[in-house]
UniProtKB/TrEMBL annotation:
InterPro entries (UniProt xref): Calcineurin-like_PHP, Metallo-depent_PP-like, PPA2-like, Ser/Thr-sp_prot-phosphatase
Serine/threonine specific protein phosphatases domain residues: 119-124
Catalysed reactions listed for this entry: O-phospho-L-threonyl-[protein] + H2O = L-threonyl-[protein] + phosphate; O-phospho-L-seryl-[protein] + H2O = L-seryl-[protein] + phosphate
Keywords, ordered alphabetically: Hydrolase, Manganese, Metal-binding
The organism's taxonomic lineage, starting at the top: Eukaryota, Fungi, Dikarya, Ascomycota, Saccharomycotina
Molecular function as annotated in GO: metal ion binding; protein serine/threonine phosphatase activity
Top EC class of this enzyme: hydrolase
Family label: Belongs to the PPP phosphatase family.
Originating species: Candida oxycetoniae
Protein name as catalogued: Serine/threonine-protein phosphatase
Domain of life: Eukaryota
Enzyme Commission (EC) number: 3.1.3.16
SMART domains: PP2Ac
PANTHER family per record: SERINE/THREONINE-PROTEIN PHOSPHATASE PP2A-RELATED
């Protein structure tokens, strides 16, 4: 019988120090990454496909290896463990710091297991990371060895696929699936595998909402579907949900609200790829008490209260009241009561990387290839070649 092991808190804090207190951040040794992945895998085995989370919580969208912008999120939104975070996936690829980004998130998850939740995006995949930067970055940073990539992509197979917040909000990376009418169908999937090309698991990480259509249509991304308001409404009604929150699409203003807030997109990579000029956001959910009636929140079993939590909750409310006219920002942003998008711009390190003008992961490789077979090179590259900065683009890998 295997004896479960844990990593001493002091060692985890040392990892955090390596990443946070050095410039550039120090990468963790391969053995440490291996150990972190092993311990987290054993923990994630017990986590259901859809986690039950509670407000207050801050929801973060795509990060894509933009490590310094992740640190910016902690600066503006509060740092763990004082703020609860749900990350919606796409931690790696594209940016220059996928290794540092995923390393920091792994350490934080193990250090503060009840304060940080990570779900899987379409980039948490062996195939995608081989083509869009993470694999190459690991080879470059670990002396030509792909071991760290192998360990981390094995771990990706264990990440949950979604979460509910206060039982009324559903969060996932991409969107809905024509094969899935009930949340219980997602709960029943065997998720411990590479992301398949089709089916519910693929659609959850690949699909997008579309205001122009009804029903489902095949997605131009080559995987997943587009879905209209009729689909969104039916899914919410059938599952007693008020809203879906997801990421996966670049938003120039950092967020998009669809159908009066029924569906929200959170995008958390500012100046995406060091050249898009877009803003980014974190969605802060303070409560889900829409009617004014007290709603009972369902606490997941085994949840541990951390000292000082009630204090930080209060300060989150105070900050919110101080910074925003609540009703105005709610109307402007198209969110539900108790929610607001905290908008932020690129960190100064992001700007420095822009000036340095390095190539961006996955952008210049002719063998990069989209999932859609036979399509020559890349929607993404074409976007930058043919369109001016700051123009909205609908679909990105
Ligand atoms: Mn994505």
């Amino acid at each position: 019988m295997t004896v479960p092991f844990s990593i001493p808190t002091s060692d985890l804090d040392y990892c955090l120090e390596q990443l946070l207190e050095h410039k550039p951040p120090k990468i963790l040794p391969p053995e440490t990454i291996h150990q972190l992945c092993h311990i987290l895998k054993t923990q994630l085995l017990a986590v259901p496909n859809i986690m039950s989370l509670q407000s207050p919580i801050s929801v973060v969208g795509d990060i894509h290896g933009q490590y310094h912008d992740l640190l910016e999120i902690f600066r503006i939104g509060g740092s763990p463990p004082n703020t609860n975070y749900l990350f919606l996936g796409d931690y790696v690829d594209r940016g220059y710091y996928s290794v540092e980004t995923i390393s920091l998130l792994l350490v934080l998850k193990i250090r503060y297991p009840n304060r940080i939740s990570l779900i899987r995006g379409n980039h948490e995949s062996r195939t995608i990371t081989t083509n869009y930067g993470f694999y190459t970055e690991v080879l470059n940073k670990y002396n030509g060895s792909s071991d760290v990539w192998a360990n981390i992509t094995d771990l990706f197979d264990y990440l949950p696929l979604g979460a509910t917040i206060d039982g009324t909000i559903f969060a996932c990376h991409g969107g809905l699936s024509p094969s899935c009418q009930q949340l219980d169908q997602i709960r029943a999937i065997d998720r411990f595998r590479e992301i398949p090309h089709d089916g519910i698991m693929a659609d959850l990480v690949w699909s997008d909402p579309d205001v122009e259509i009804v029903d489902f249509k095949l997605s131009p991304r080559g995987a997943g579907y587009l879905f209209g308001s009729d689909i969104m409404n039916k899914f919410c009604n059938d599952n007693n949900l008020v809203q879906m929150i997801r990421a996966h699409q670049l938003c120039n203003e950092g967020y998009t609200s669809y159908w009066k807030g029924k569906c929200l997109t959170v995008w958390s990579a500012p100046n995406y790829c060091y050249r898009c000029g877009n803003k980014a956001s974190v969605l802060e959910i303070l409560h889900s008490n829409y009617t004014g009636k007290a709603e009972t929140s369902i606490r997941s079993e085994g949840e541990v209260e951390v000292d000082g939590m009630s204090e930080s909750t209060t300060s989150l409310y105070d900050q919110h009241n101080f910074r925003f006219d609540k009703q105005k920002s709610q109307v402007d942003q198209g969110v539900l009561p108790g929610q607001f998008f905290n908008i932020f711009e690129a960190s100064k390190e992001n700007d420095e990387d822009t000036i340095n003008g390095k190539s961006v992961n996955g952008m210049n490789s002719s063998d990069g290839g989209e999932l859609k077979s036979g399509k020559n090179n890349d929607f993404f590259a074409a976007y930058f070649l043919e369109r001016p900065r700051r123009q909205h683009v609908e679909y990105f890998l």
